[in-house]
Amino acid sequence: MPSTPHLAIPMGDPASIGPEIVLKALAKESLRTHCQITVIGSRKILEKTYQHLKQIISADAMIDPEQLSIVDISLEGQLEIGRGSAVTGAASFTYLQEAIAGTLTGKYQGIVTAPIAKSLWQAAGYNYPGQTEVLAEAAGVEKFAMVFVGRSPHTGWTLRTLLATTHIPFGLNYSKIVIAGLNPHSGEEGKLGTEEQDWLLPWLAEEREKRSDIELIGPVPPDTMWVEPGQAWYGNGSKTDTADAYVALYHDQGLIPVKLMAFDRAINTTIGLPFIRTSPDHGTAFDIAGRGIANSRSMEEAIKLAIKLTARRMNLHAA
Fold first, then answer.
1. What does the pLDDT read at residue 165?
2. Are strands 267-271 and 145-151 parallel, antiparallel or unpaired?
3. Which of 43, 185, 195, 225 is the most buried (most CB within 10 A)?
4. CB of 238 closer than 8 Å to CB of 155
5. What is the predicted pLDDT for the residue at 167?
6. How many CB atoms lie within 10 A of CB 316?
7. What was the pLDDT predicted at 1?
8. Looking at residue 10, what is its pLDDT?
9. 15-44 b/e with 16+ CB inside 10 Å = b?
């Protein structure tokens, strides 16, 4: 086990903003001093991206690919920046597979994934819903979930939103977790839906019995559950009354408030894997690729969180 984390960064779809945000994020020396980083992708594309963007933005905003450790995987086919294809979809899948293989052998302790286009994976013949499912399959795990994390620039408060899961690997000794109801007003005692009474309330009672180290609150009406997090995020309420995490029972119930509050700095991390995986919470943005305007903040935050989580896991294994 190395003394500092070693992270793999597959650069995502090569026609997307992936190469740009990787070069911009890794220009922050503070990120590179706390871990080893290997970028997995095409060196030629990274170099072309760097040379092209130097004509548009300051070279200081990016790292020169010559300074990077790169696992070079040549692109098999033609590339036009901003226009994804089956070729670029296949390339991004190959980059991820290489990162996974290195992680499973212990070369890397974590993966920070740049964005891919699911439709282009499918065009290339890879029928997966997304990177999360590929990671889980390769790791041989069946129970996994997505957690979205964002740190408020206004108050420093950390928002953690989970999509229907109960396990939080964030080093919290005692956790306070709020669970949303499924129906409006949490079903209003069966008048607006019976799912809460049929399975959610019994499940919560069972979990409270099993998990004495977790305070489970709910089901809370989903339209009001986000009031306290919003107040803590923007600084017009008390942070002490908020929970450590909020569980949404379906995708948009959790992701709409996350994107409203933390669109440019939210991070997606996959729990349940035997290694750390984080990613920026945004897509490929083909429409702005090559223009020098892609925001790398979410990628930077994803790397920071990966460093923190891998270091914690390494310390636990060493103890």
1. 46
2. antiparallel
3. 225
4. no
5. 39
6. 9
7. 56
8. 98
9. bbbbbbbbbbbbbeeebbeebebbbbbbbe
Q: Which residues of the chain have pLDDT under 70?
A: 1-2, 165-174, 187, 237-240, 316-319
Number of Cβ within 10 Å of residue 119's Cβ equals 12
Q: Which two tokens stand for residue 106?
A: 């212990």
Query: Which tokens sit at 48?
Result: 């072309």
| Contact of 229 with 242, CB cutoff 8 Å | yes
DSSP string across the chain: --SS-EEEEE---TTTTHHHHHHHHTT-HHHHTSSEEEEEE-HHHHHHHHHHHTTTS-GGGS--GGGSEEEE----S--BTTB--HHHHHHHHHHHHHHHHHHHTTS-SEEEPPP--HHHHHHTT---S-HHHHHHHHHT-S--EEEEEEE-TTT-PEEEEEES-----S--SSEEEEEE-SSGGGGTTTTS-SHIIIIIHHHHHHHHHH-TTEEEEEEEPTTTTTHHHHHHHHTSS-STTS-SEEEESSHHHHHHHHHHHHTTT-EEEEESSSSEEEEESS---GGGTTSS----HHHHHHHHHHHHHHHHHHHHHH-
Q: Are strands 245-248 and 267-271 parallel, antiparallel or unpaired?
A: unpaired
What domains, with CATH codes, occur in the chain?
A: 1-142+272-319 (3.40.718.10), 145-264 (3.40.718.10)
φ/ψ of residue 42, rounded to 5: -95, 120
The pLDDT of residue 52 is 96
Structure tokens at 155: 């108050």
Tell which residue, 111, 91, 100, has the closest CA to residue 5.
Answer: 111
Q: What is the pLDDT of residue 196?
A: 85
> What is the spatial distance between Cα 298 and Cα 295, in angstroms, rounded to a whole number?
8
